[in-house]
Amino acid sequence: MKKGGLALVLLAIVVGIFAYQNGYLQKSGGATLEVQTTAASLGNVQRMVSTSGTVKALVTLLVGSQLSGQLTELNADFNSEVKKNQVIARIDPRTFEMKVAESAAAVSVAEASISLQEATLVRSKVTAENAQRESNRNQSLIAKNLVAESALDNSRAAAQVAKADVVIAQAQLENAKATLKQRQATLDSARIDVERTYIRSPITGIVVDRSIDVGQTVAASLSAPTLFTIAQDLRNVQIEAQVDEADIGQISNSNRVSFSVDAYPNKQFTGTIEQIRLSPTKLQNVVTYTVIITADNPDKHLLPGMTANVEIVTGERKNVLVIPNEALRFRPNEAAQALVQENKGKGAARREQMLNNLKTELNLSAEELEKVRAAFEAQKELNQVRPATNAPPAPPGETAANPATAYAAKIAKVLQETLTPEQFKRWQATQQGKRRSVQIWLKTADGFLTQKRVELGINDEHFTEVLGGELKEGDLVVIRVKAKTP
Question: What gap in Å lies between CA 99 and CA 360, rounded to an integer?
């Protein structure tokens, strides 16, 4: 052999070894397959619910006026820090002060009327006493025939009229006293209106909005107009986040919360879930629930109205075995079938294991077990090795979202048609809470692809936790097979 030919042979051997070690396999059609893998390793996984909400003060009050009138004083502006009961505005008080003076005069008149009625009562009592004495005297004289009987009748009538005058005077006195109380109440009301001309802050906080200027007329008719919006101390704020109904079941008060705002994109804030409101919000057939998140704001960087991008940590695992999410989505295409390593008998073994589990969980008799076995045998696609899951299957007749769910749905359909309704319900109950089980593809030492079953835990955007199964740290998990032409 010539030197040139020998060199080409050696070069071909070296290239072949390199291709084998790096996941390449030369196919008969001339295409090269690149198997992209990643090693199963220990890592951290965080499951998070992402949402958004509006930053608000813990307490926000709308300050208005119960009176109508022209604003004559303005003692607070935007961003003014105010104390509780501090005067922040004043309505022209002259009209209300005149009402106070008018009511005070009415009180004086009522007091004078009481004095007059008291004197009238005294006079009526004296007159009544004198009339009674006159009647008594005529009564004694009539027995001696010293006065006429008509004189006795007149004296008796005069005594009765005098007694009636006493009752009238007493009633007029009580009326005068009641009138005084009424006039006094009117005076107190007028004084309260004068006090209400002072617009005071109900809390200690900061003015975040002002909708009135000096000289403007306040018109309070059916409702009190809003003059100021005051937020309580902004060193503590809250976020009203909207969480989708699909995620609300994962949320609890113990979850960690972090969020950011567009004003400070490089700064992360932390918060605490204070409340999960039970009242749902439905908009365009989307149901959400309001989650109240409180946060410290010592530097007052967070302002009312800012949009917070919230991330709620609903699950966290540290130093656990993880695989990339791409590995769960990988399925060998037609070109990669040449690399698939046959697992003869594995599907039948898995089916027998499933039948044994059914027998134990549902307490099936031998006859019932054979009936289920025959139903599985009738479904040829169930005899093959396919990705499966122990998660609750889709209802029979519905289109499954992926092959694993489709396979589980077929199993459910077979069992529903074979088992009694009570047994099928018990089987469905056993599926709740089971670990999610799927099959992934690994690259063997000789460059082929083989399937392994794993049980999955929580996942985040990039990785999924592996709780158990036929996978160990360092195994090469296949995430992609690409064909390359020379």
Answer: 91
Q: What is the arithmetic mean of pLDDT over 378-393?
A: 47
Q: Taking Cα atoms as reference points, which of 311, 150, 330, 192 lies closest to residue 241?
A: 311
Q: Assign residue 305 a region: left if phi > 0, alpha if psi is -120 to 50, beta otherwise?
A: left
Burial class (CB in 10 A: 0-12, 13-18, 19+), 87: middle
Three-class SS of 280-343: EEEECCEEEEEEEEEEECCCCCCCCCCEEEEEEEEEEEEEEEEEEHHHHHCCCCCHHHHHECCC
Nearest alpha carbon to residue 83 among 192, 208, 230 = 230
pLDDT digits (tens, 9 = 90+) for 2-27: 444 444 333 333 334 334 434 444 34
Question: Which has the closest alpha carbon to 77: 65, 88, 66?
Answer: 88
Round to whole Å and give the CA distance between 218 and 95.
Answer: 14
Side-chain half-sphere of 410: how many Cα atoms within 13 Å? 19
Rounded CA-CA distance 379/255 in Å is 45
Q: How many CA atoms lie within 13 A of 288 on its CB side?
A: 15
Kindly list the distances between the CA atom of residue 419 and the CA atoms of 47, 364, 369, 397, in Å, as whole numbers in the listed order. Answer: 37, 10, 10, 17
The rounded distance, in Å, linking the Cα atoms of 162 and 133 is 12
- Give dist(CA 145, CA 274) in Å, integer: 102
User: Which tokens sit at 240?
Assistant: 């009203």
* Sign, CA torsion 35/39/43/47: positive
pLDDT tens column, 22-79:
444 434 345 577 888 999 999 999 889 999 999 999 999 999 998 999 999 999 999 9
Nearest 5°: the CA angle 472, 475, 477 is 120
pLDDT at 240: 94
Diameter over CA atoms, the chain: 184
Q: Which residues of 456-483 are buried (b: 16+ CB within 10 A; e: fewer)?
A: bbbbbeebbbbbebebeeebbbbbebee
Question: Would you tell me how many other CB atoms lie within 10 Å of the CB of residue 96?
Answer: 19
Q: What is the pLDDT of residue 321?
A: 93
The tens digit of pLDDT for each residue in 254-275 reads 999 999 999 999 999 999 999 9
- Closest C-alpha to 302, from 96, 55, 91: 55
